[in-house]
From TrEMBL:
Keyword field: Membrane, Transmembrane, Transmembrane helix
TM ranges: 74-97
GO molecular function, one term: sigma factor antagonist activity
InterPro entries given in the database record: FecR, FecR_C, Ferrdict_sens_TM
Protein's name according to its UniProt entry: DUF4974 domain-containing protein
Organism of origin: Pedobacter kyonggii
Gene3D superfamilies assigned to the protein according to its UniProt record, in alphabetical order: 2.60.120.1440, 3.55.50.30
Keyword Signal: no
Protein FecR C-terminal domain boundaries: 314-381
Thylakoid listed as a keyword: no
Domain FecR protein: residue ranges: 176-271
């Protein structure tokens, strides 16, 4: 029985088309895999095979005694089931080891040597008076008072600005949220605009929008879902551009270590100004700016979900060069990346969850053609 047979059996179970015997086989597998705590020593391949063989042959012997009248037919039926159970269990153990980072090729001592871990919900709130609140360590509930506004951290790890009264305050204060390398955060401004910050990013904003517009400044990568307000356009400033919107969804990638600044529109309409040039985007378009003096280049983006994959928990790259991919990794895992030998000039495409261990990350990068190793708490890209 090969891997395709195993996949077909599980697919039948999930589609509710499996027979009662097939359901029994799959359920026995899940019971064995999900209900146990495993250790490294339990999982030598020979031990697994021996244990599964003993369990299945024991079940065959037991059923032979209980159902002697159907001896020959039952023996072959159970033998077939035992073979399937062995194959499925071995596949399940393999998947389990892979998913939990217990690859048989990566020892526990190797895992313990590295301190490189994936990023998480980490950010710092800078208040107008200069005080700082480390958001991932702050208690849930109200964490600050600003002029006419309450600042609340939710149980799910969001930061929300709410009016303290029924009217818009006359005075305001400037706050800043900063995510470190290896951090991300979600906040809701007082007008209802939602903001997601990627690793190594920041947003500076007034606690209330009292003027004729809603103006914020950003660095790094930020995704916006802007609350509609025709009377007050929403303006985002970076070091290379100014984006003006009324209500829309868009992503800005404005890292200093990236050659280009990219603004991608997912929904609505935005107007972008850089230097002396102003242009308007429609959904599915991306504005690319290298320097203000070089103007704005417009490209069509086929896969918009790839642009905000970071927000949804993935690295996703399409025909990207090696250094671009590894900059994503370096920011999120907050680690240095170095290169051994000549850097390939190839293009890479892939999609990888951002919550995997560094050993699993390296394994998955290898599938895309990028070969790395961990040494002295940094990732080294090999020439292979």
């Amino acid at each position: 029985m090969n891997t395709d047979d195993i996949k077909y059996l599980i697919e039948k179970y999930n589609n509710q088309t499996a027979t009662s015997d097939e359901k029994m086989i799959v359920e026995q597998w899940y019971e064995r895999i999900n209900g146990a705590e495993f250790t490294e020593n339990q999982f030598s391949e020979e031990k697994v095979k021996k244990q599964i063989f003993q369990n299945t042959t024991s079940r065959i012997d037991h059923n032979k005694v209980q159902r002697e009248p159907k001896k020959i037919k039952l023996f072959y039926s159970l033998f077939f089931k035992a073979a399937i159970i062995i194959m499925v269990l071995l596949a399940g153990v393999y998947v389990y080891l892979k998913q939990t980072g217990r690859d048989l090729l990566v020892t526990s001592s190797e895992q313990k040597k590295t301190k490189i871990i994936p990023g998480g919900n980490n950010a710092v709130l800078l208040l107008a008076d200069g005080s700082q609140i480390i958001l991932n360590k702050a208690s849930d509930g109200q964490i600050a008072d600003q002029p006419g506004v309450k600042v609340v951290k939710t149980k799910s790890g969001e930061l929300i600005y709410r009016f303290a009264g029924n009217t818009n305050p006359k005075s305001t204060a400037i706050n800043t949220v900063i995510t470190p390398r290896g951090g991300q955060y979600h906040l809701v401004l007082v007008d209802g605009t939602e903001v997601w910050l990627n690793a190594g990013s920041s947003i500076k904003f007034p606690t209330a929008f009292t003027g004729s517009d809603r103006r914020v400044d950003v660095t790094g990568e930020v995704y916006f879902e802007v609350a509609k307000n025709k009377a007050k356009p929403f303006i985002v400033s970076t070091n290379k551009s100014e984006i003006k919107v009324l209500g829309t969804h868009f992503n800005i990638n404005a890292y200093d270590d990236e050659e280009y600044q990219r603004t991608t529109l997912l929904e609505g309409s935005v107007e972008i100004k850089s230097g002396k040039q102003t242009t308007r985007l429609t959904p599915g378009q991306q504005a690319i700016i290298k320097e203000k003096t070089e103007g704005i280049k417009i490209e069509k983006i086929e896969d918009l979900e790839a642009i905000i994959a970071w927000k949804n928990g993935y690295f996703q790259f399409e025909k990207a060069d090696l250094k671009s991919v590894m900059r994503l990794v370096s920011r999120w895992y907050d680690t240095k990346v170095s290169y051994s030998g000549t850097i390939p000039t190839k293009e890479y495409t892939g999609k990888i969850p951002r919550n995997v261990s560094v050993s699993k990350l390296i394994e998955m990068l290898a599938y895309t053609g990028i070969h790395c190793r961990v040494e002295n708490n940094q990732i080294i890209v090999n020439q292979k």
